[in-house]
Amino acid sequence: MNAPPFSEEEKRGVYRAIYERRDIRSQFLPKPIPPAVLARILDAAHHAPSVGFMQPWDFIVIEDTRIRRAIHENFERANQRASDLYKGARRDSYDRMKLAGILDAPMNLCITCDRERNTGHGLGRQTDPATDLYSTVCAVQNLWLAARAEALGVGWVSILDLAELKTLLEIPDRHTVVAYLCVGYVSEFRPAPELEENGWERRQSLSALVHFDRWGAHDEQRSMGLATGDV
Ligand SMILES: Cc1cc2nc3c(=O)[nH]c(=O)nc-3n(C[C@H](O)[C@H](O)[C@H](O)COP(=O)(O)O)c2cc1C
Hints:
By secondary structure, the protein is of the alpha+beta class.
């Protein structure tokens, strides 16, 4: 059966999820996530594209407070080390930002990539072995967008000692941690990235990043139609 085209409303829904998705750190509510909603967002992740249809991902659902506390401590130490790399006003600005909601969110998810899974029989990975990792990132993004449609916030925490995290969660060696996510209902979705609101970074101009036919060719005329993606 050939699927019908998206209606205008369905299209708007897809773009709305994309533009209104935010990285959440401070606005988590303790409200529990119903199992059916968790199942839907995990299944959305599981329907991501993957190299050779490898499906290299696993999802660890973490609710246990003791485990989350240990991971939060891991974050605090890693965050201190990261802060030490900045100086002056940039460091002050870094230190003012809240960069994880590990204990505020009722649920954390660790998404891993099995570097040796035989599903897909190596198709596509013979030439680029990193494509299993890219596939897992696609799963993360699917989950992030589905979560937004479910009114769930997601915050990605990369400021972690990953070796320590693997030990803590008893993840076997051959699996790479791709993402550590905080998930939960939120008090609000900010209209713009918090890092932009805090003056840390701005959204770049899309037309400066789009090249036509060869690197460095920015066609004024053709760039005119490029939307910024801001809402
Ligand atoms: C791979 C990856 C790692 C990230 N790690 C962190 C992190 O450790 N802490 C944090 O506060 N935000 C983290 N973020 C979120 C980004 O800061 C955020 O996506 C960006 O500022 C744009 O904001 P938005 O997601 O709300 O549009 C991460 C995002 C990605 C894609």
